Amino acid sequence: MTNSVDEFELSDCIFITGSNTTSSHPIVATRILRAKKKGAKIIVADPRRVHIADLADLYVSHRLGTDVALLNGIMYVILDKGWENRAFIEERTEGFEEFEKVIKDYPPEKVAEITGVAEKDIETIAHWYATAERGSIAYCMGITQHTTGVDNVKTLANLAMLTGHIGREGTGVNPLRGQNNVQGACDMGGLPNVYPGYQPVTQFQIKEKFESAWGAQLSDKVGLTIPEMTSGLLEGSMKAVYIVGENPLLSDPDASHVEEALKRAELVVVQDIFMTPTAELAHVILPAACFAEKDGTVTNTERRVMRTRKALDPPGEAKTDWEIIADLSNRMGYPMDYSSAEEIMREIASLTPSYGGITYERLEGEGLQWPCPTKDHPGTRFLHKDRFVRGKGLFHAIEFKPPAESTDDEFPLWLTTGRLYFHFHTGTMTRKSGALTGEIDEQYVELNPEDASQLGISTGDEILLTSRRGQIRAKALVTDRMKKGEVFASFHFVESNANILTNPAFDPIVKIPEYKVCAVRVEKAAS
């Protein structure tokens, strides 16, 4: 997040898109609802009528995969009405002229045809957001999990810069992270192209710094993304995979393809706290400690680094993740002589400028938000106050592109996927809770009443949901949360895993798969 969670309460207008906020981020949602009580306008744009849409001042349901078109249409209106922040554009941005040329091709009437959103609603969003004193954007995986995920995020950045709603309290472009330490994993180099602190592996000086610190020769080549690893296992160019705290057999698209890849591997190592479907395919399982069984830190969605403290000993032979990795490294010939998580944190601070001033002593209490470069720095509540990291913010001229596949007579409906209120991700932890499984413990596919009527399907009926990659059996839930032509399924249930169906096509830049839109058909199952 460019800004802090509490700052939502300072916003006059909050634009939420691709986020089921009350369900997936309830703490964030409470701040948004407090802002609403103070008079803030709440706008929700989501193909599915998620819970927070019922609390919005304006809800629009755009067609799956049409985010760029909708946002470009909003910006067309802002420019047409003269609501843009010219002073901000001239002083703090570049690339505006090329961007403006593209936006001129997205008048509301054209965008309404592409997205299904009424022209008057496009104009209202533009008016409320652009004329607010403090406008804030919140988004989640409904924006990123597309073959145009990068385009979607850049377009949101365009909207914030166009209106000057960035670099101030209560504004910003705020991605809501999907798990408690996703931000921290990325910060620590859990990406194939960077060292900790987003320092590029391709830069000689950065490579030399880490080689000196670690006493090892390092590659300057960008590593593989998850889809590329899957392809590598299938093609035989990659022989082994080490999976830590991940369950790709449920969480990755085209799950049958993933299963085949893992079965072809010469070595699959899984390090996790529970036996997962992925672990059942492993040659070696390394039992890990859970969060309550170890000391360490997490970095949350607002860049806040926080201490975690050991409350009890790990069961059986389980060890903390860093101990397992260090032990393995020592046995493979590279010595790792760490004595504690705190010692590792000191190394992080010494090599990662944005974490340079973070120590365990300073993390007592509520923690610190990076960048925190020195030990006397208070941390950073919001980013881009006086300048962007690159100097001036860059507008991107982005055209709308449709999803990677199309519907047809054989697959006439669109499927989108996501989470349910009572479960988390692949259900590894939540489906072990009797209270949560008592609420829901099987897959329901949400259908619009008109589609259900045409198919002769009622709530509770067994149905078959089929894509170009596979088929699952589940129960139907007829609901007006879905509009005609679109259905929804979650990915919590291994028995009817929605990711058997999803499209492995991915964004060309960051390689995130298109989980949020694929073509399917629905039919009533034989009794």
What would you note in describing this structure?
There is one protein chain. This protein is globular. The chain is of the alpha/beta class. The protein folds into three domains: about 5-180, Dimethylsulfoxide Reductase, domain 2 (3-Layer(aba) Sandwich), CATH 3.40.228; about 225-370, Rossmann fold, CATH 3.40.50; about 415-525, Barwin-like endoglucanases (Beta Barrel), CATH 2.40.40.20. It contains 18 helices and 23 strands. The mean pLDDT is about 95. The N and C termini lie far apart (about 50 Å). The strands form seven sheets. It has a six-stranded mixed beta barrel with strand order 16-20-17-19-18-23. The protein has a five-stranded parallel sheet with strand order 3-2-1-5-6. A three-stranded parallel sheet has the order 9-10-11, with no helix packed on it. The longest helix is centred in the N-terminal third of the chain and has 15 residues, at about 65-80.
Q: Secondary structure elements and their pairing?
A:
Layout lengths: L12 E5 L3 H4 L1 H12 L3 E5 L12 E3 L6 H15 L4 H7 E2 L1 H8 L4 H8 L3 H13 L3 E5 L1 H4 L4 H15 L9 E3 L6 H6 L6 E2 L3 E2 L3 H11 L11 H10 L4 E5 L3 H4 L3 H10 L2 E6 L11 E4 L8 E4 L4 E5 L12 H11 L9 H11 L16 E2 L23 E2 L18 E6 L15 H6 L4 E4 L1 H7 L6 E6 L3 E8 L7 E5 L12 E4 L6 E2 L3 E7 L3
Report the radius of gyration as a whole number of Å: 24 Å
Strand order of the largest sheet: 16-20-17-19-18-23
State the CATH superfamily name of the largest domain. Answer: Dimethylsulfoxide Reductase, domain 2
- Which residues sit in consecutive blocks of at least 5 with pLDDT less than 50? none
The structure class reads: alpha/beta
Give the strand content.
15-25%
Main sheet characteristics: 6 strands, mixed, barrel
- Average pLDDT works out at 95
**Portion of residues within helices:** 25-40%
Distance between the termini: 49 Å
Q: What is the count of structural domains? A: 3
What CATH architecture label of the largest domain applies? 3-Layer(aba) Sandwich
Provide a count of the helices.
18
CATH topology of the largest domain: Dimethylsulfoxide Reductase, domain 2
Q: What shape does the CA trace take?
A: globular
CATH class of the largest domain: Alpha Beta
Would you report the number of β strands?
23
